[in-house]
Amino acid sequence: MFNIREIAKRAKNVSYGLVDISTEIKNRTLLKAAELIEKKRDVIEAENRKDLVAGEEKGLSKAMLDRLLLNEKRIAGMVQVLKDVASLNDPVGEVIKMWTRPNGLKIGKMRVPLGVVAIIYESRPNVTVEAGSLCIKSSNSVILKGGSEAINSNRVLVNILKEAAESEGFPSDAIQFVDTTDRSAVRELLLLDEYIDVVIPRGGEGLIRFVAENARMPVIKHYKGVCHVFVDEFADLEKAWNICFNAKVQRPGVCNAMETMLVHSKIADAFLPNMIEMFKKVKVELRGCERTISYDPDYIKPATEEDWYAEYLDLILAVRIVDSLDEAIDHINTYGSHHSDSIVTENYTNAMKFLNKVDSAAVYVNASTRFTDGNVFGLGAEMGISTDKVHVRGPMGLEDLTIPKYIIFGNGQIRE
Amino acid sequence: MFNIREIAKRAKNVSYGLVDISTEIKNRTLLKAAELIEKKRDVIEAENRKDLVAGEEKGLSKAMLDRLLLNEKRIAGMVQVLKDVASLNDPVGEVIKMWTRPNGLKIGKMRVPLGVVAIIYESRPNVTVEAGSLCIKSSNSVILKGGSEAINSNRVLVNILKEAAESEGFPSDAIQFVDTTDRSAVRELLLLDEYIDVVIPRGGEGLIRFVAENARMPVIKHYKGVCHVFVDEFADLEKAWNICFNAKVQRPGVCNAMETMLVHSKIADAFLPNMIEMFKKVKVELRGCERTISYDPDYIKPATEEDWYAEYLDLILAVRIVDSLDEAIDHINTYGSHHSDSIVTENYTNAMKFLNKVDSAAVYVNASTRFTDGNVFGLGAEMGISTDKVHVRGPMGLEDLTIPKYIIFGNGQIRE
């Protein structure tokens, strides 16, 4: 029988030694895994096919099956992630500050690994490689719990990471796989705060709430992305049209897509008619406030209170006309999910006020919200995106898998 | 009836505006509170007396009553904390990094307040002022829940903070007091993740476990301090005697006092006899491993497995002889509480290895563990000490009450 306590314990025991593994060994492990993935593409695709066949039999949706698929392009993507992470600076051991106290003690803050990181994720098997590589590079033990529908794909990828580790001298016990589809395993895992330092759930809101309510250890999480673009009265119209269209349409199914568009009443006449036409052409359903509806009463449906909270993940958009920047900021802080929000404006003071007062992980001026992503931000890869307020906000990269500890150099000091 | 949901909601609503309150207003508020505490010393002492009388009637221990007491010195201490925090740099708005992406987006990380911080603490009423002042300075709303035995003392101190806020233009709704001794209030508070961004429990292990198991929001916590000093084979004996004596004896009832002393077998003959005499003189009870006992079989009691895990908070010390640095590090990582641990050595390689491999919030070379404290480290004051692995390890100061958010400056960028 699968013993989750045992694998967590093994991950913890090995974790204390990881801080001593050299950057060179870690990089060689990542590059070896990249090589093995390329070499074993047939095996990976065969295991993935098992999951796809089982998924079809179980009647998974087309979107789910697509997320599950590992084709040539996605396999190449995983190889690239491994190479990218190998090329990033190693954050472990970085001393970010050091000062001397009046008694001569030298006090510093040095980045160290978190310890044991558990990640619980759904469908996309690429996450196995992304999370695994970030944990290897940051000297953390990782416990990977993927979705049951991807178990064969995930297992073969974990085995490749372990093979690479063994070949290059990185302790393979640091990479643990929850090799069971038994749902009670997750519940048990969440109680093991003795061994697991942090858990990161990635998936639907149901999974995340379950983890947040049951975990004894800290959770870094992301409920949903209700992102806004506010078209200020001083917006450049071309930029506004392009940004709003991109934020809604370019990939509507993701967390950093726009779900509500806010428009200043003073620019509505100039901005809205053309914007509505652009959205109509690609069949974006619009749900507006009363004033918005007046711009196209036949096409625009009335928005209800629930629409302001909604994460559609689809070609649907809520639209509201507001009379001030303050009203827009209040709307975003009240109804939003503190993820990514953007203002389109040429006015300096309004831009700075929006940046300051919108309480979100990523706040933009004159750009599409679609950029919120570890890779796009230049972090190399991401463990997930946090809408929490502690430890990390926004994309969680390599540095966020470490935490400074205090190191103190003395020469015999005692406390008076 | 006291409505905790209502005060949490009020704290949240006002929190969004706090980021805009100038450092000047925050500092004036702190200095005004210092002035009011000095002016109202009689009122504070009268309210404190109510708590002391009630505590005596309830049969609180002498130690508890001492912690509850606000005498002239402690009131002066609170005044000093307010002045110290006023003099610290304001962390809000600090941009800690900024870079430009190939598409021209400028991406930065800017410190912003956490939002609403709840602190649940026992007995010492000074915590009210310490936590309140740090939250004011870092533009956080604070919800203060002190122990029921200190409710009159805490109420008068909160009222002073609020009076200072009102007088200087800082929103007084940002300072909320849980003015009830009803225990169900804490349970309800822990479910309000909608309004409260982080909760910090300070007190006994029972309280902290209760909070960790029931809170829906992130918890920053500190279970216990099982701190070690390791006397390496290359220790300077004078330093070792002084440091071990100080770490155990100077104030045994606190979390950064030494609870277990580890001694390298090669230095035991030279080190232990005099050390044992020093401890005997001040009546430190010693519980040793077999080899330790052989140095004074009449005085030293045998240590059990539980002793290695014990936080005595008293003049009791566990002592173990080890045969290597690795054995010492393993002991500390296995039995310790990841709080504060020190090595005494003149050997460079051993010092660096200990610093790297001991997984604790504060790792010392040649100094007493007693220094782990926000004020002593130079942070001005502390909200508490974290033995968690996320957000902050060790003393939690002003900076740790903020978190960087991403700010992104564009000029029309959209995602391809």
UniProtKB/TrEMBL annotation, chains A, B:
| One GO term (biological process) | L-proline biosynthetic process
Q: Which reaction does it catalyse?
A: L-glutamate 5-semialdehyde + phosphate + NADP(+) = L-glutamyl 5-phosphate + NADPH + H(+)
Q: Does the keyword Mitochondrion apply?
A: no
Task: Please provide the record's keywords in A-Z order.
Answer: Amino-acid biosynthesis, Cytoplasm, NADP, Oxidoreductase, Proline biosynthesis
A GO-annotated cellular component: cytoplasm
Q: In which pathway does it act?
A: Amino-acid biosynthesis; L-proline biosynthesis; L-glutamate 5-semialdehyde from L-glutamate: step 2/2
Q: Which branch of life, at top level?
A: Bacteria
Which parts of the sequence belong to the Aldehyde dehydrogenase domain? 5-285
Q: What is its EC number?
A: 1.2.1.41
Q: Which GO terms describe its molecular function?
A: glutamate-5-semialdehyde dehydrogenase activity; NADP binding
Return the CDD domains for the record.
Answer: ALDH_F18-19_ProA-GPR
Q: What class of enzyme is it?
A: oxidoreductase
Where in or outside the cell it occurs: the entry states: Cytoplasm
Instruction: Tell me which Pfam families the record gives.
Output: Aldedh (PF00171)
Xref: NCBIfam families:
PRK00197.1, proA
Instruction: Write out the similarity annotation.
Output: Belongs to the gamma-glutamyl phosphate reductase family.
Entry-linked HAMAP family: ProA
Main role? Answer: Catalyzes the NADPH-dependent reduction of L-glutamate 5-phosphate into L-glutamate 5-semialdehyde and phosphate. The product spontaneously undergoes cyclization to form 1-pyrroline-5-carboxylate.
Name-wise, this protein is Gamma-glutamyl phosphate reductase
